[in-house]
Specification:
By secondary structure, this protein is mostly helical. The chain has helices at 31-49, 57-66, 75-88. The N and C termini lie far apart (94 Å). Residues 97-131 are annotated as: Disordered.
Length: 131
C-alpha cells in the first residue's frame, strides 16, 4: 500500500453485524481491503462521526470525499466508500424464482355471468358433413 499520512485506528475495526465472517470472507472485499478496514477503519469511522478531528491533509481530504466535495483518490478512501455502500445501502433482494409476476390477460376485466351464451354457436349434433 502506498504511504498514506493517515492515523491507524486505536483498535481493530470489525463490523460483526453486517460482515460476521469478516470483510474478505464476505466476498465483497479483497484481503488488502480487509486489512485497510481493520487497521484504519476505527479512525475513518470516528472521523466520519465527527468524534475525531482531522490532523493531516489526507484526513481532511477523506472528510471532503465523504461529503461529496472531492473524489476518492487513494485505496484507503475508495475502500471506505465501498464499505459505506455495502454496509449501509439497501441490499437488493433476489428471489429463487426469477420470473416477474404474470401479466394479467387482456380479457381479465370482462365479466362473464352464468347467462352468457358463450359457445352457443358451437353445435355438436354428432353428424358429419358426409351425411
Amino acid at each position: 500500500m502506498q504511504n498514506v499520512d493517515f492515523r491507524l485506528g486505536k483498535k481493530p475495526f470489525y463490523d460483526n453485524k453486517r460482515f460476521r465472517r469478516g470483510f474478505a470472507k464476505s466476498g465483497d472485499f479483497t484481503i488488502a481491503e480487509e486489512e485497510i478496514l481493520i487497521r484504519f477503519g476505527d479512525t475513518m469511522n470516528l472521523l466520519e462521526l465527527g468524534e475525531l478531528s482531522p490532523e493531516t491533509d489526507e484526513e481532511r481530504h477523506f472528510l471532503q470525499v465523504l461529503s461529496d466535495e472531492k473524489q476518492a483518490e487513494n485505496k484507503l478512501e475508495k475502500t471506505w466508500v465501498k464499505y459505506i455502500h455495502l454496509a449501509r445501502d439497501r441490499k437488493k433482494f433476489h428471489t429463487l424464482n426469477g420470473k416477474k409476476a404474470a401479466a394479467e390477460p387482456a380479457d381479465a376485466n370482462i365479466d362473464y355471468d352464468d347467462n352468457d351464451d358463450i359457445g352457443d354457436d358451437i353445435v355438436d349434433d354428432g353428424s358429419t358433413s358426409d351425411d
